[in-house]
């Protein structure tokens, strides 16, 4: 394969941020990591670049002139453009993160961030969006092995014909793990997803929610069908997951 052909097969990443220092650091780092990169200094320019070049993934700052990252995300989803989107958010803005995920963001990363972490998140998003059916981040229904079905719109879940009784935080945990299927998610990350930075809650609270899910699912932690423990690190959803457009009762 020639160098030009190899470059054509590299994923195309659009990075939109109004801070020149961020772009000047992130763009060359992504290029060195094997990506082709487009840069935009505001949300409106980002939308134009996305429509013209159809990138494989977009990294959008939530605070930009013209249109912020969430406005760009909403515009894309209204156009039924399901390009994966990773939002750069401010530390502590738990409400912003929750709303962004509900609006169809595939993931988020808090600023300031480690460029290596950004690369890892981009690669993870690309892996889980290269599947048949709607992207997991935007699918109204998540379906897994052994008859597990999660209705994200109605906030209900079934195991076969049995509707599961899950607390709101337990449901959020299950949904997040399924969307990030086969990824190792550490306890600190799950703590942030469930409670944000505003509440003083220890990581053992995450373990309690996982235990809740295992009780509800009737799962043996030693032989997990869905949620595996990675000792000293966190959890991984090991069941296969695909998205569906609407809930079909089994």
TrEMBL record:
Q: Name one Pfam family in it.
A: Trans_reg_C
Q: Where is the Response regulatory domain?
A: 12-126
Query: Which keywords does the record carry?
Result: DNA-binding, Phosphoprotein, Transcription, Transcription regulation
InterPro entries, A to Z: CheY-like_superfamily, OmpR/PhoB-type_DNA-bd, Sig_transdc_resp-reg_C-effctor, Sig_transdc_resp-reg_receiver, WalR-like, WH-like_DNA-bd_sf
Keyword presence, Transcription? yes
- Coiled-coil regions listed in the entry: none
- Per the record, DNA-binding region residues lie at 139-239
Domain of life according to the entry? Bacteria
Q: Which residues form the OmpR/PhoB-type domain?
A: 139-239
As stated in the Swiss-Prot or TrEMBL entry, residues carrying the post-translational modification 4-aspartylphosphate are 61
In the UniProt record, does the keyword Transport occur?
A: no
Name of the featured protein: Response regulator transcription factor
Organism from which the protein derives: Brevibacterium ammoniilyticum
